[in-house]
Amino acid sequence: MCVHKKKKNEKKINECEKEMKELEASPQRKQVKIKNEIEQESDDEIDNIPFRWSKVERPSELRVLEQHTSKLKCVQFSPDGLAIVFAADKCAEIQSIQSHCKMATQFNGHSNITGRELTAFNGHSDVIRCAQFSPDGHTIVSCSRDRSIRLWDIATGRELQFFGIHSKSVDWVQFAHDGHSIVSCSWDLTVQWLDIKQNKAVKVFTGHSDAVHRINLSPDGCKIVSCSSDKTIRLWDVSTTKQLYALNTHSGDVNCVQFSPDGRTIASCHEDNAIRLWRCDPTNPIHIIKGHSAAVNDVCFSPDGHRILSCSSDKTIRLWK
């Protein structure tokens, strides 16, 4: 892929009054989901952005969600891409993408029915760090500061399984692509592979020297990338649990790591305001992308792999080409 220096290569969504913590492109590449209190869009462009990815079309549409009074903690598309579920401090909401209307809301234990009844998932005793849909869309997995991982039936809200394999806060969980396993990471310095049927951890990946905050499974399911407060990004072989390499970024905490759709590139975002792109057998980053003026909290590839979205404590969302 060729890289050219060029100005006005970035679309900037208008500044918001609250920090943005996370965002992701939908499967149809027509929506953006944002973890913060205010979401806005604009056709404005800005100068002084160092890199452009060539031969990539600009996105045709950005969807904007409504304003909230507190920070959003977690958000995810449903597998069919037609709905979003997200949570703030005291509010959980399901929203239709196409109609842009609430399907259901729960606030302080009371339901505000606007479409169909909301299912409440009660069981965690501390802050929920992450929630993810299963590949078939019938189950949700969640993890919490209470050190547990739980599986839930979406239709009934019933807790299906409890995993208590971590000794400290669990920061992230992800279903394996076949839906039969779960990958998790924790402040106990480990990444673990959980077999749902056996109801136990069958693989443990060790090597980080500080809390592990984020993991991502490669598209082929053969590798895991992880990032940590130890300032490293590590790549793991799923079958052997061996560490393939460790990158010391020398750039403060790494907040997020994400495989590209083809599995050949890893994007990471950092406390030093930068985004870095790495090959899966790297010695140095392919590109260091600068433009944010504060810590970059999340980064993701578009499904076609030609665009990157980032969000930052500088209150902006930026689209990179």
From TrEMBL:
<dbReference type="InterPro" id="IPR036322">
    <property type="entry name" value="WD40_repeat_dom_sf"/>
</dbReference>
<keyword id="KW-0833">Ubl conjugation pathway</keyword>
<feature type="repeat" description="WD">
    <location>
        <begin position="205"/>
        <end position="246"/>
    </location>
</feature>
<dbReference type="Pfam" id="PF00400">
    <property type="entry name" value="WD40"/>
</dbReference>
<keyword id="KW-0677">Repeat</keyword>
<feature type="repeat" description="WD">
    <location>
        <begin position="247"/>
        <end position="278"/>
    </location>
</feature>
<feature type="repeat" description="WD">
    <location>
        <begin position="289"/>
        <end position="321"/>
    </location>
</feature>
<dbReference type="InterPro" id="IPR020472">
    <property type="entry name" value="WD40_PAC1"/>
</dbReference>
<keyword id="KW-0853">WD repeat</keyword>
<dbReference type="InterPro" id="IPR001680">
    <property type="entry name" value="WD40_rpt"/>
</dbReference>
<dbReference type="InterPro" id="IPR019775">
    <property type="entry name" value="WD40_repeat_CS"/>
</dbReference>
<dbReference type="InterPro" id="IPR051983">
    <property type="entry name" value="WSB_SOCS-box_domain"/>
</dbReference>
<protein>
    <submittedName>
        <fullName>G-protein beta WD-40 repeats containing protein</fullName>
    </submittedName>
</protein>
<feature type="repeat" description="WD">
    <location>
        <begin position="121"/>
        <end position="162"/>
    </location>
</feature>
<dbReference type="GO" id="GO:0000209">
    <property type="term" value="P:protein polyubiquitination"/>
</dbReference>
<dbReference type="InterPro" id="IPR015943">
    <property type="entry name" value="WD40/YVTN_repeat-like_dom_sf"/>
</dbReference>
